[in-house]
Each structure stands twice: as C-alpha cells, then as structure tokens.
Amino acid sequence: MAQPLVKKDDDLDDEAEYSPFSGIEKGAVLQEARVFNDPQLDPRRCSQVITKLLYLLNQGETFTKIEATEVFFAVTKLFQSRDIGLRRMVYVMIKELSPSADEVIIVTSSLMKDMTSKTDMYRANAIRVLCRITDGTLLTQIERYLKQAIVDKNPVVASAALVSGIHLLQTNPEIVKRWSNEVQEAVQSRAALVQFHALALLHQIRQNDRLAVNKLVSSLSKGSVRSPLAQCLLIRYTSQVIRESANNTQTGDRPFYDFLEGCLRHKAEMVIFEAARAITELNGVTSRELTPAITVLQLFLSSSKPVLRFAAVRTLNKVAMTHPVAVTNCNIDMESLISDQNRSIATLAITTLLKTGNESSVDRLMKQITNFMSDIADEFKIVVVEAIRSLCLKFPLKHRTLMNFLSNILREEGGFEYKKAIVDSIVILIRNIPEAKESGLLHLCEFIEDCEFTYLSTQILHFLGIEGPKTSDPSKYIRYIYNRVHLENATVRAGAVSTLAKFGAMVCELKPRIFVLLRRCLFDNDDEVRDRATLYLNALGGDGAVVETGEDVKEFLFGSLDIPLVNLENSLKNYEPSEESFDINSVPKEVKTQPLVEKKAPGKKPTGLGAPPTGPPSTFDAYEKLLSSIPEFANFGKLFKSSAPVELTEAETEYAVNVVKHIFDGHVVFQYNCTNTIPEQLLENVTVIVDASEAEEFAEVASKPLRSLPYDSPGQTFVAFEKPEGVPAVGKFSNMLRFVVKEVDPSTGEAEDDGVEDEYQLEELEVVAADYMLKVGVSNFRNAWESMGQDFERVDEYGLGPRDSLAEAVNTVINLLGMQPCEGTEVVPSNSRSHTCLLSGVYIGNVKVLVRLQFGIDGPKDIAMKLAVRSEDETVSDAIHEIVASG
Amino acid sequence: MANFFSSRDSCPAVKNILILDSEGKRVAVKYYSDEWPTNAAKLAFEKSIFTKTLKSNARTEAEITMFDSNIVIYKFVQDLHFFITGGDEENELLLAGVLQGLFDAISLLLRNTIDKREALENLDLIFLCIDEIVDQGMILETDSNVLAGKVAIQNMDVSAPLSEQTISQALATAREHLTRTLLK
C-alpha cells in the first residue's frame, strides 16, 4: 500500500491508487487463504481474506471445482473462531460457494450448533445459510428448530426462518406446509417485518385453498396489519379474492372494495399506490369505484419524487386504455409532465394524453410532441408512434395532421424497430381510413427511395402491389417501384418485379409499359429476379396484347394461401417424394392463436405488414409428431385436433394427471400426462383403465402403457378408441390409474426389486361437441358470411336463463362451441344491454362454419340469444344448434 | 425460483442490486433472478443500464426508468451509482423503499462519506449490508437503522474484548488504522 507516489497526471493512476484491491490476483488470494488453517487464528486478517475472495467472485472471477473445494474446507475451519464479525463473513462466503451435497455435511453440525446458539445473529444467519444449502433429507432433521425459530421472540430470527420457508416451499412443499400453525402465530407478531414475511408464507402455503385465502383476507383486512409491506401484500391478496369471487356475487356491491378504498388513506405512499393500482385493475371497474383512486394518483403526478410521478402516470396510462374519460381530469397535470426531466415520465404522459385527448386538442399536442421526439430513445418513440396510430383511428378526420407527423419522423434517423413501427402504423391507417390511402402510399414510396432495411422495403413493395393498382392514378407509383430494380439488392429487386407484375395484371392500360420494364429485368444478374420476370411475363401473356388478365392468373398472383406457412413448411418437410404428389389440402389449417390484444411489452405488437412472423412450432405439431411416432396409432390418419390439457387430479396430490384429447377422423386418442410427486416412489407399468360404458359409440382399440414413472419427470400413457367415422360422437369416460409402485431409497435413489400393484381414482373426462371444432379465424367476417350464402343457414332463438352478466353468457357460449371469436367481438363493453358476437371454425370433415350470436338482456337478469349458423353442410348447421340446445 | 419471480400475486421481489462506480465498473453487485445467467449477460446489463442512466440527475431524488420490461430505480452519490431492479408489474414505490434503505444504511455505516474509495475500503460492510437487505430476491429488512445495526454488531464486538486479542493482533490493528489515516 505504501508505494512511492507515481506522478499524478493521469486519472487512471489516481483511480488505481484508491482501490485497496488494485492488482489483486486470484492465485495470490488463494495462497493467502492458507491463514484459515493457522492454529492461532487472526480474525481480522481472515475477514480481510474473505472480503478479497468475495470481491473476486463479485467481479465475475470463477473458481475451479478444486479451488472452490479447497476454499470451502479452509473456510469451515473458521468456525473455531468466536469472532462475530468473522463468523458473519463465513456465512456469506458459504452461500457464495454454494457447496455440493457431500461438502454440506461438513458444515451441517457447525451450523446446527449456531442455530441453537444464544446469540440472535448466529441463529438468524445460520438458519438462512443452512436452508439455502440443505436438501430435503437434512431438512427433516432441522425442522423442529425451524418451527421454533418462526415463533422466536427475536424478529430477526423469526424473519430468517420465515423467508427461508418461502424459498423452501418451492423445493420441499410437503415439509413447509406442516408449519402453518407456527406461521399463523407469526402473522400476529408485533414486529412489522415478521408479519410481512409470515403473511407471504402463509398465503403461499394456502394459495390453492380459496376458502382459506378468503378467510385470511377478511380477518386481516379488519386492521391488524402493521407494516406497509404486509399491507401491500394484503391488498394483492384481496384483489385476487375479488377477482375469483367476481362471478358469484349477487348484489352490485363488490366485496372488500371498502377495504381497498380505505387503504387510499394509509400513511405510507407505497400502500396508497398499491391500493389505487388494485382498484384500477378490478374487473369491470365502474367510474364511481375509479374516482377515489384517480384522485390520489392525480396528487402523485405533481410530487417532487420522480418515482412517484412515474408510478402514477404509468397506472393512469393503463387506465386510459379502458376508461379514457376517467383520466381526463388529470390532463392539466399530465401536460406539465411533457417537459419532465425524466423522459420515461414524459413519454407516458404524452401517450396518456393522446389516449384521452379530444379532437380539438390533437393539433396542439402534436406540436408539443414534435419538439420532444428528437431527444428520446427509440423505444419511447415506438410507444408514441403506437399511441398516435390509435389516436388517428379514433379521429379519422385528423388523418392529415397525423399522417404528416408520421411521414416526418419516418424521414429522421432511427433503428429498425422504430421504423417498422412507423411503417406498420401508416399501413394500418391506409387500410382503415380510405381518405388517407393516397397520401400514405406516397409517403411509403418516398421512404423506400432511401431505406436501408431490406425487410421493410420488400414489405412495402408487397403492400404497394396490393393497394397501388386500386388507386385513381396507379401509374405514379411505377417510377418508385422500378427505381428499386436499379438501385437495390437482389431481394428487394425480386420484390419489385412481383409488384410490377401485379400492376400489370390489374391495370390494363399499364400492361404494355410494364412488359417493357419486366423484359429489362430478364437480364438481371440474380437468378431469382430473372426467374420471376420470366414467370410473370408468361403468366400475363408476354405478347404484349392489351387483354383482360385471366382469372386463374389473378388467383395465382393475388390469391392468398389460406393455410399457415408454418404448417405448410412442416408438411413439406414430412413429405417423402413418391408416386403420389403433394396434396396441399392435407396441410392442417389450425392456427396457433395469435394474441389479439396489444401487449404492453415493446416488440410484441400486432403486425401491420404481411404475414405475422412465424412463431415456434405449435403444440399441435408436437402432438402430431408424437402420435405418428407410435406404431399403434400410425394408421389413424391425419390428426384433426388436440384439446388443451384437462386436469384429472386436484392440484398437489400424490400423482398429477392431465389428459389431452386427440381427435382423428375415426378414432380418439387420450394422452394422459402423469407426474409422480413422491420422491420415495417409483411407478412402473402405468396404465389408465378407462370405463366407456357411458360412451356407447366408442370402443377401446389400443393402449400404450408407460414403462416407468420416476419422481418428478412427467411421462405419458395413451388409450385409443374407435368411433364412427366423421361423426361427432360424444360421451363420458371414467378413469382409473393402475400401476406397480416400488419404494425408493432416498439416499441412494435405487428402487427396491419388489413392487405392489395399486390403483388411483382419477376424475371423469368427457368428449364434447366442441372437441370436433377447430378454431380457425377469418379476417373479414362479413365477406366470409356473405360468400357462404344462405343455403344452409339455420336461425333460432334461445333463452339462456338468468346470468351474472352479458360477458359471462357470451363466454359460456363461445366455450361451448369451441370456435374462434372474430374481430374482437368476444369482448363485451361494460354496461351494454346487447351484444353481437361473431365466431368461425372448421367442423370435423373440414366443413367451414360461421356463427353470428346476438345477445340481449331480457327482463332483470335473463339473457336471450339469437343464433344464426351458416356452413357448407346443413347437417353441420343443425349440429351446431344441437350443441347449443343440449348445452 | 422462477415461480417466485413471475407471479404477480406473490411477494414483491428484487431481481438485482447493483453498486457501480462512475465508469460503470462493479463495486458490489448481487443478482437474485436467473434472468441473467452468465457473467457476460450481467456485465451487458450493467453496461447498458449505466449508459442509459448516465446523463440523468439522480442525486437528490431517486430516478426511475423502464428497461427490458424491468423497472430500474437508481440513485447516484459522489462517484457511486446505486441501482435496484424489479419486474415490470412491481410496485415502484416499494422498490424505491428498498433502495433508500440500502442507501441510508450504507451512509450510516460509512459515516456519511459515501464514495468509491470509502466503499471499497469497507467492502465487507457493503457485502454484509446487501446480504441483510434481500435474501434470494425476498425483501428481508428495509429500515436503514436496523440494517446498519445488524451489520455494525461485529465492529463493536471485535473491539470490545480487547484483552482477548494477542499483542501481535492488537499491533496489527493499530498499524492498519495508522496506514488508513495516513492514506486519507
């Protein structure tokens, strides 16, 4: 340390001088760690060495297995010292080293001694360390001490035990659950933090028992909670209870609302905020309920603390999505936040204002935003762009101002995600606001003149090919498109060629000129570009005559593929070249449902351009692959549909089983996913005995047992039934899990040789009509409905009887039919008296079905429904009515 | 563990605590979530959050930002930058409370001279303080006085039974104190 001073002309030297760790080296420190072995321990020196070791680990240095073991053993020697400070460092060091099971044994006895020591600090810390490194077997040995510690009169000790319990619950739930009496007692503790930790643990122990949680909340909400942290927890649990009981309240009053409202007057800001947020997130919250929460959030907006302003504006921003009117009161405070130093706050304020603002304030807001855009980061800009898009859809008359704004920011600097968000927004506006189309397309054209992103260029070209020919003067776009053929890379050139061809096909007058341009592309130096040009020239009739383009050529150029590309890709991969040619009809049409709602996370927006990016292979493909790999089921044909897993056991039982129903044309396969949750058992030869006496049309044909089911590694067993081909047979099945159980020695993990046969009753399972329905959406329901025609339309009216709400009735019918809601009609606006819901799907036998549901409130609570079905087959239309009539 | 961090209905959780210097280098960091599995991922996170917040003025009041779907609350003093990260559904004020607790406890322990040099010289206290404030993501204690008390216990006890120390140890202690004061 006492080195001669170097010349202090360099900041770096200066810096190095300061650090007691400068020039520290792993090897040297490991050497130093030998002092741990000295017979005469020097606690201060040992502490310093541990600090150095921790420093190294903290800087990201790693120890090899041998080094770690050596250090660990040396550190264990330090338990001989009675120096409290050193002991504390030893505890931290052991946690950092996360020793292996055989090493843990070395320190167990020392830690257990500390756990029963008279020094509170020892007890608390030893508990935390031991619980961190222990495994299940050791836990049973120390369980007694832990239970005592939970009710220890020293709060630090109690908290240590409770927090350890929270972590252990993930790995050893059955042990921790036995402590609930002690935890219950600790909830009443006078120490604030103990109460917080006890409440958290108690709730986690009981979280699957709704009644118990309900009781917990109602007893504590009467006011015995001391710490703000515990109060925040209680608010979370309360809103959970409210959420779960929402469906069975009779009166209009919401249970526990008064409690939440009362918390708005709590003295701690974190509690006030937690309560306000909980109120805004209540299901179907009314404006009367919202008002007090909005009022406190409004006060936070003018706080001097950035964190408070941020929290308030972020919550109000979310409220503005669903209840814009409720937030308008805060507009003045919100406007002053636009100039907030903290850019996150400013962005949130702007986007909230965009959501709540009225038509007259748009121009003023846009001016403020323009000044502000240049100094925020791309991710915030994206948020602003999205807000402007929805504003424009709300006030179509303002499209000129907003479109201009978008085109201006499109010209400025920005990364791909940002540019993509702008382009997507323009595309959506063009689609939805006819008046904005021409100016929007020109903005896009100008953008591709100088666009560095190939992806965006090709997407815009594709879009131009669809929309451009339908405008009043298609010829003005040709120049922009043909410029691409000269100036861009091969991918963009190929895209431009396709777009040109589309103009040629759609606009007769342009055809001869397009031919000239396409012929020039025949000499391109890229294969794909040349091929496309040749193909289109031939398809359009390359003789240059001005003729009407044939229907099938149009279909070829513009027809959309009505199957998801992922599915097509998979089918093509599975296709083996043979005599039989590839049949596009054999490609499954089931779409993995795309989330329709706008997610808050950036980057997960609904795509405005072209097809959505292909996601990971759907579970459907995984099931299909799995089933086709089992010889017994290989000849069942093509999988029609797989249901979502249905639980056949209660949560947290010895064996967890759920079932997936796989529907084939003439067969049904039940896939039972089993998990063994008992570490001391190994199950072998696992089968499910299915009694199909209440399912007359089904006959069992095959079953595939599971050879062995070790602890905590899920396995599957299958049972297959034959059913009449193409018929939507329904029925009820009762299930019994049968297996041979063998004891497992927990220390060695080896199973005994002899097993005992045993059975375990599972819940019943039903095959219902909805299992024969595929969720397949249509993009434009009205078009689909009209083109389906009235030939097989069936209309009837039904009384649904008393229901809690319109929304609940709508959901029930959707679930009953198992069809895909279209155009967001599954969402029922609150307080509406009637609602129309549009559904689409494909019924077994590949029959397209469209359903229009009209709901109305009839009398005080009774709900009536008019059901109109159109399909390609009248028996199917009748079948849909049958489902509703019998459901 | 994953469960502990994902579920909104469960307890508030802290994903990491960072103390960086004025160049973004680590003084002390602690990660509780496995969202950043490797040291490289951790360093990348630190670098980007440091650059992102560098220009803001977080000296009088703690500042806040959203970063990769996480909430980050930060406060700077002298050449030290304190950060705390939580999930994007977390109560911002609650996280701010934890950061404030840590910050105040460290000022107590360092006797109000919080800077990098002082922090590194008392790094053992900083490590213990971080260890006492959050346990594997679960908030353990936020009251700065209690925190500082828990950490400081050792110092009192070490110096108290002076008689138990050997002469050489006492000399070593004295020498060390001297060097420290000389270097200041």
UniProtKB/TrEMBL annotation, chain A:
Keywords: Cytoplasm, Cytoplasmic vesicle, ER-Golgi transport, Golgi apparatus, Membrane, Protein transport, Repeat, Transport. The coatomer is a cytosolic protein complex that binds to dilysine motifs and reversibly associates with Golgi non-clathrin-coated vesicles, which further mediate biosynthetic protein transport from the ER, via the Golgi up to the trans Golgi network. Coatomer complex is required for budding from Golgi membranes, and is essential for the retrograde Golgi-to-ER transport of dilysine-tagged proteins. Oligomeric complex that consists of at least the alpha, beta, beta', gamma, delta, epsilon and zeta subunits. Residues 27-540 form the Clathrin/coatomer adaptor adaptin-like N-terminal domain. Residues 593-615 are annotated as: Disordered. The lineage of its organism: Eukaryota, Viridiplantae, Streptophyta, Embryophyta, Tracheophyta. Residues 770-884 form the Coatomer subunit gamma C-terminal domain. Belongs to the COPG family. One of its GO terms (biological process) is protein secretion. It comes from the Eukaryota. It is found in: Cytoplasm; Golgi apparatus membrane; Cytoplasmic vesicle, COPI-coated vesicle membrane. Residues 622-767 form the Coatomer gamma subunit appendage Ig-like subdomain domain. It comes from Durio zibethinus (Durian). InterPro entries: ARM-like (IPR011989), ARM-type_fold (IPR016024), Clathrin/coatomer_adapt-like_N (IPR002553), Clathrin_app_Ig-like_sf (IPR013041), Coatomer/calthrin_app_sub_C (IPR009028), Coatomer_g_Cpla (IPR032154), Coatomer_gsu (IPR017106), Coatomer_gsu_app_Ig-like_dom (IPR013040). Its main location: cytoplasm. This is Coatomer subunit gamma. GO terms for molecular function: structural molecule activity. It is a peripheral membrane protein. One of its GO terms (cellular component) is Golgi membrane.
TrEMBL record, chain B:
It is a peripheral membrane protein. It is found in: Cytoplasm; Golgi apparatus membrane; Cytoplasmic vesicle, COPI-coated vesicle membrane. GO terms for biological process: intra-Golgi vesicle-mediated transport; intracellular protein transport; retrograde vesicle-mediated transport, Golgi to endoplasmic reticulum. InterPro entries: AP_mu_sigma_su, Coatomer_zeta, Longin-like_dom_sf. One of its GO terms (cellular component) is COPI vesicle coat. Keywords: Cytoplasm, Cytoplasmic vesicle, ER-Golgi transport, Golgi apparatus, Membrane, Protein transport, Transport. Its main location: cytoplasm. Residues 14-155 form the AP complex mu/sigma subunit domain. The keyword Transport applies. Oligomeric complex that consists of at least the alpha, beta, beta', gamma, delta, epsilon and zeta subunits. Belongs to the adaptor complexes small subunit family. The coatomer is a cytosolic protein complex that binds to dilysine motifs and reversibly associates with Golgi non-clathrin-coated vesicles, which further mediate biosynthetic protein transport from the ER, via the Golgi up to the trans Golgi network. Coatomer complex is required for budding from Golgi membranes, and is essential for the retrograde Golgi-to-ER transport of dilysine-tagged proteins. The zeta subunit may be involved in regulating the coat assembly and, hence, the rate of biosynthetic protein transport due to its association-dissociation properties with the coatomer complex. This is Coatomer subunit zeta. It comes from Durio zibethinus (Durian).
